[in-house]
Design brief:
The complex is a heterodimer. By secondary structure, chain A is an alpha+beta fold. Chain A folds into 5 domains: 99 residues, PAS domain (Beta-Lactamase, 2-Layer Sandwich); 102 residues, Beta-Lactamase (2-Layer Sandwich); 167 residues, 2-Layer Sandwich (Beta-Lactamase); 102 residues, PAS domain (Beta-Lactamase, 2-Layer Sandwich), CATH 3.30.450.20; 159 residues, 2-Layer Sandwich (Heat Shock Protein 90). Helices cover 39% and strands 29% of the residues of chain A. In chain A, helix 16 runs antiparallel to helix 18. The longest helix of chain A is centred in the middle third of the chain and has 40 residues. The mean pLDDT of chain A is 86. Chain B is α/β, with parallel strands linked by helices. Chain B has one domain: 3-Layer(aba) Sandwich (Rossmann fold), CATH 3.40.50.2300. In chain B, 35% of the residues lie in helices and 19% in strands. A 5-stranded parallel β-sheet of chain B has the order 2-1-3-4-5, with helices on both faces. In chain B, helix 3 links the parallel strand 3 and strand 4. The chains are: A alpha+beta, B alpha/beta. At the A-B interface, helix 15 and helix 16 of A face helix 1 and helix 4 of B.
Chain lengths: 725, 132
């Protein structure tokens, strides 16, 4: 404090005031106030005068420019000027209680400047915070009574965050995450709790379950119970990864599973889980293009299965698209013209949005992959691509399985057929060595171990003409031809058997003959029966001819004394013709004969050099054989008596041919005599004449021309009549 | 028939076990102008050939099941009595299926008797007259 006393205003002060004076101390003690503070006297003089007038003045943080230390400095002062009264109550002096506040004021000023700076900075950050593209949360954990973190509260949230999660701006602050997202995964609480508890930042990629969005984020501790989370939505990236992963998994699953229904189940499940839809099914369209069969489908919780059999027409508005193989994409069935008219059937099975992917093969829709959801949904091109890819892959996998199964079944079937056959089925290499023999074949050949004959030269297994036939057949097979023959061969243990053998080429992959197939059937019994029959037939033929001889003898003995010796002779000869027909027929068990052999047999007794027989290989039945034999015999007999055979130069040409007659085959046979006398029509028509006119089939069809050059006979008959038994 | 009937009727041996056929064959042999000597079996035939040295021709049926194979007998005859002509007939065989002895002729049953008569005459033509 300082004191200004008396009319001179003598300046007195205590030690505490000395520092305020700086270098003025001690000079200032005892001088006048004005001498002590010449630099501020003008400013304080009025105050001093008002104080001597009896007023008290108080000042707070009054700035004073002081040169107390030899240089001017800004100072602040809080002080009071108060009058000090003398004995008579007059103002004798002035007491100045001074407190220098320079330090405080300076501190306050610095603080204010800092505060202003902070406010500017905060504004800047908030702006940044609000314009950030990444979502940002300042959160504070919520603890239960025991101090355990059970939830957290949104303290600050930027607009980007609201936009990212797609909820109304401003509605999260002050609420907890469990309130904002009921049913949210516990990780969202537990992981951030860990950040607060450990002080360690974490990074994560996570889906908000009921929003089907994916986020990359960083959570950092922010002191105390606070933490910050910075989010970036990566749904597209994650879904793209998922789709890629789904296709990869589909690929694995489709090759690992065998059962077609399991394949469909797995494929639809992968698609359904990847796309987070309600239902995925796969069905095949029948050959008729109408029946659509869904063996099973994948459904999310709450969706009913649509497995069953449908008609393509059930798909009304878009059935045509499906038939044509066009992918049907309907984001909202209520808005699509193909479905909007009547959405009831679709919505009754929780279909509000759908994708149907037809799979086409050879121009026909063969299968459909369908994806349903109960809410409207915009399908991205990536999702549609996934559906298309998955559909095609499923179809391909199923087709491959089906083909494999078919191949397996065919192989099983073929091997069971091979095993069941009692024929001896062999595969022979081109060099004639055995490389395979069927199970049944080993049985009939009495072979217990194929190795015993494997690699043996096949021709050596046969007897008699067998080896030659086999070699010929192998050569033929190499040229792509098939051969059949019969040959004897002993079984492995030496039982003699007779075989009917068929040898054919087995083509290799390029169509060339790779190996040879031989199928041998045991015809031992048939062969024996055939030999037996041959023997019996021979015996029968012999007896018939013997009987004919006896008949002939009786006839001769009966008629031998008669006038007409010629009749007896003719009878004998006719009997001979009958016997020759019998001979020819005996060769093939009386079932058929070759025309040439019949003609030859009938004419041989008339001299073989007199006849020219020309015609194709034609087989005729037993009746025609008898008729032809007798007819040729009569013609030859007549020719010998009156025709070409009555002269040494005369000849007869017998010609036959098969021609098509109005769709049916007919046999023509002609008998032309040349080199003999002119032919004359007989006046008397006897038995011989009648036999000739009966023709080939016994019903005519004979034309006789008696010409100067000789007789010409043409006979014709339908081939089937000639050949019937 | 028989315009040129030989002075002596040559004996022809007919070997036939079937009675009716034998009857007819004898008839045929006689019609051809020969004397028929009949044998009922091959054994019979051999015995007769041994006894009757004047036989110049044998007409034999090969189908005689109760005796040795007819073709063997024929071969034996050819071997033992080379000059004797042989005419064979059979129902069971054909001309091609039997191995005929040299100079032997074969006619299938039923025979053409005129053919055989012609053959008998032809085979005995120019034969020296049998000595009594």
């Amino acid at each position: 404090m300082c004191l200004a006393w008396g009319p001179e205003r003598t300046f007195l002060y205590n030690d505490a005031y000395a520092p305020i004076l700086g270098k003025r101390h001690p000079f200032a003690f005892g001088v006048t106030f004005a001498e002590a503070w010449p630099d501020v006297w003008d400013e304080i003089k009025p105050l001093v005068e008002r104080t001597f007038a009896g007023e008290t003045s108080t000042f707070r943080d009054m700035p004073l420019l002081m040169t107390r230390n030899g240089y001017p400095e800004e100072t602040w002062w809080s002080f009071s000027y108060s009058p000090v009264r003398g004995e008579n109550g007059e103002v004798a002096g002035l007491l100045n209680v001074t407190l220098e506040t320079t330090d405080r004021v300076k501190a306050e000023r610095e603080r204010d400047a800092a505060t202003a700076e902070l406010q500017r900075s905060e504004l800047k950050w908030r702006h940044l915070f609000e314009t950030l593209e990444e979502g940002f949360i300042l959160g504070k954990v919520v603890r239960d009574a025991a101090g355990h973190i059970i939830d957290w509260c949104y303290e600050e949230v930027n607009d980007a965050w609201y936009d990212l999660v797609g909820i109304e701006r401003g509605c999260a602050v002050g609420r907890t995450i469990r309130e904002v997202f009921p049913g949210i995964e516990d990780e969202w609480v537990l992981e951030f709790a860990r950040v607060v508890e450990t002080g360690q930042a974490i990074r994560f990629t996570r889906q908000v379950g009921n929003l089907q969005r994916w986020y990359d984020g960083v959570c950092q501790p922010a002191g105390g119970d606070l933490f910050t989370v910075l989010f970036l939505e990566v749904t597209d990236r994650v879904q793209s990864d998922q789709r890629r992963e789904a296709l990869a998994e589909l690929g694995r699953v489709l090759t690992a599973i065998d059962d077609p229904e399991d394949i469909v189940r797995a494929a639809t499940g992968i698609i359904g889980r990847t796309l987070c839809v309600g239902r995925v099914g796969y069905g095949t369209v029948g050959e008729d293009g109408e029946t659509f069969v869904v063996p099973n489908d994948w459904t999310a919780e709450g969706y009913a299965s649509l497995a069953g059999t449908y008609r393509m027409d059930d798909y009304g508005g878009y059935a045509e698209d499906l038939r044509e193989g066009r992918m049907v994409v309907i984001p909202d069935v209520r808005l699509d013209p193909r479905t909007a008219e009547d959405t009831g059937p679709l919505e009754s099975v929780a279909v509000r949005s759908l994708v149907n992917r037809p799979i086409k093969e050879r121009g026909r829709t063969v299968a459909i992959l369908y994806v349903n959801d109960s809410v409207p949904r915009e399908w991205t091109s990536e999702e549609l691509q996934l559906i298309a890819d998955a559909g095609n892959r499923t179809w391909t996998a199923l087709e491959r399985r089906r083909a494999e199964k078919e191949a397996r079944e065919t192989a099983t079937f073929l091997s069971s057929v091979l095993a069941a056959s009692t024929d001896c089925i062999k595969v022979v290499e081109l060099d004639g060595r055995l490389s395979f023999m069927s199970e049944g074949g080993m049985k009939v050949m009495d072979i217990s171990d194929f190795n015993a004959v494997k690699g043996c030269p096949w021709p050596d297994l046969l007897k008699e003409n067998g080896p030659a036939y086999v070699r010929e057949a192998i050569q033929a097979a190499k040229l792509g031809e098939t051969r059949h023959f019969e040959a004897p061969a002993d079984t492995f243990i030496g039982t003699p058997k007779h075989w009917s053998i068929s040898v054919s080429p087995i083509p290799g992959p390029n169509g060339e003959v790779a190996r040879i197939l031989s199928v041998s059937r045991d015809i031992t019994e048939l062969h024996q029966a055939r030999e037996q029959q041959l023997l019996l037939n021979g015996e029968l033929a012999h007896r018939i001819k013997n009987t004919m001889s006896v008949v002939q003898a009786i006839a001769h003995q009966t008629l031998g004394r008669a006038e007409d010796q010629k009749a007896v002779e003719a009878f004998g000869k006719r009997l001979g013709a009958l016997a020759s027909a019998n001979d020819v027929l005996t060769r093939d068990n009386w079932s058929s004969a070759k025309l040439e052999e019949v003609a030859h047999g009938a004419l041989s007794t008339f001299g073989e050099d007199r006849f020219v027989l020309t015609g194709p290989d034609v087989t005729i039945g037993p009746r025609a054989t008898l008729a032809l034999s007798l007819m040729l015999h009569e013609l030859a007999t007549n020719a010998a008596k009156y025709g070409a055979l009555s002269t040494p130069e005369g000849t007869v040409s017998v010609t036959w041919a098969v021609r098509s007659d109005g769709g049916k085959d007919a046999l023509d046979l002609s008998w032309i005599e040349r080199g003999g006398p002119p032919a004359l029509e007989p006046t008397r028509k006897g038995f011989g004449s009648r036999i000739i006119r009966m023709g080939l089939s016994g019903s005519g069809g004979v034309e006789l021309r008696y010409e100067t050059e000789g007789l010409t006979m043409r006979a014709t008959a339908p081939l089937y009549q000639i050949q019937e038994a | 028939m028989g315009q040129s009937q030989p002075l002596k009727r040559w004996p022809v041996l007919v070997v036939e076990d079937e009675p009716i056929l034998r009857l007819d064959a004898i008839d045929m042999v006689e019609e051809a102008g020969f004397e028929a000597v009949e044998a009922l079996s091959s054994a019979d035939a051999i015995q007769l050939l041994e006894e009757r040295l004047d036989i110049r021709l044998v007409y034999m049926d090969l189908d005689m099941p109760r005796s040795r194979s007819g073709i063997e007998i024929a071969a034996a005859i050819r071997k033992r009595w080379p000059p004797i002509e042989i005419i064979l007939t059979a129902a069971y065989f054909t001309r091609d299926s039997v191995r005929l002895p040299e100079r032997a002729e074969f006619y299938a049953k039923p025979i053409n008797r005129f053919e055989i008569i012609e053959a008998m005459r032809r085979l005995t033509e120019g034969e020296p007259e049998a000595s009594a």
